[in-house]
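User: Structure please.
Assistant: Input sequence and predicted structure:
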Amino acid sequence: MKKTIHTYLCKETLVPFLIGLLLFSVVFMMGKTLYLTDLLVNKGVSFFDIVKLLIYFFPSSLFLIIPIALLLGVLVAFARLSSDNEITALKASGISLYQLTPSVLFLSIAAYLLTTFLVIYALPWGNQGLKNTLFDIAKTKAYTALKERTFNDSFDGVVIYVDKIPPRGNTLGGIFVHIEDKKGEEGTRTILAKEGYVVTDPHSQEIVLNLTGVTGDQVVEGSKSYGRIQSEALIQRLVFEGDLSRTRKFRARRWEMSIGELKKKIKMKKLQGENYTEYLLDLYMKFSIPFACIVFGLIGIPLGVQPRRSGKSYGFVLGILVVLAYYILLTSAENLSNKGRLPPVLASWTPNIVLMASGIYLLIKVGNESPIRLLQWLIKIVEAVTLGAKRLFRNV
């Protein structure tokens, strides 16, 4: 009997979980899809490379989506069971709410293991694959996009014109380079060079244009400074305009380091006497964020069985509120840790501890059928907002 009930609960939870997974994946990947479409249409990147980039992008979104989709699945499943009086029927049959938790815990642990795998293995793999693919694209552009007597703007802030490209060899003749410094430190430079050649370094993943016989002008924006450039040799680094790996925030790059890379960075910072709190915090968060699957699964049970009148949209709205509370706690704890007011290990686990304690408290109260006034007020607010939104969209 219990096996049948647990199987039934798993099926009821899996359907909204998978729908939520698909929905949130589309939302999270929408911005990246626009970027990839720009690469395909405007930058001339092949469809095969676009597919590779999409695969490498996916782990960075999926590890955040799984806990949210699981919470939505549990809320919707138990809300449906409660609204159809199936929870009441189970209680009348002698099955308490506590006896329904193993099926949710089973799904939560499975989601936790999958998210842990993504954070520890798939995320660094995707990050490295993304950088390698973008480097290969930029390297191809550096060799193939440069054409005789054609202006090329494939590289960020750099326009290149080459007067002569020999059929064999990589020495370029009669080069014009216009460089726009977006940071405003070096200003705008216009350079003429007799010769040049492109060098790529797979280790540092840099593409460099070496120029010889250089003359030119330099103007710093916002000031009256003007200078002449004259040098036997000059090096200009080329960054492919579509290369997000060099423009993404530093926070994202630290997140996508492997555990080994983070430990090495922490050790190096220790030896240099520098602050390594951010790296240590990221190391702990690789284990604490996947645990949110278990926390969300637990807290979703008592929240899902609360009486309400607003239908399935109640579960979605309440799920968003729980996720917002989690990430507000996480961000606040992270800021306190970076300021030295909270140890990194405590900062990374604070949201889990707070929401886990809240989930256990709510589960005990609901299991004993005790009223929770604060939660009832919250449900009334959610219902009012949901009904108001429905009326607004209906009138529109």
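The two ends are 49 Å apart (CA to CA).
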